[in-house]
């Protein structure tokens, strides 16, 4: 009888310890689940923020590419116009030289004509 009571006490003690351990593990599991949910929310928020930033940066990059292309076209147009004006300047300088020669020749002929009279 005494042995039986001891065995029952031992089994009850083991049962109590097992239930206590089970409660501790259940509480720990709930805490870990809450922690997991918090991490998932944080990860989702971070992912969303990064996607938004990526979208903004992609838009800014496209704008910069457009501006670069426009600047390249403008540079090309300015270079072509500069080249055209340089060529026109050379032509006008040549025409000016021809006009000066004609003027001096006419002036010389005019002086010679007066000198003959």
Helix content: over 70%
Shape descriptor: rod-shaped
Major sheet characteristics: none
How many beta-strand runs?
0
What order do the helices and strands follow? H
Describe the structure.
The protein is mainly α. Helix content is 98%, strand content 0%. The chain has one helix and no strands.
Write the layout of secondary structure elements.
Blueprint: H1 2-116
Describe the structure concisely for a colleague.
The protein is mostly helical and 117 residues long. The protein has one helix spanning 2-116.
What are the key terms here?
single chain, 117 residues, 0% strand
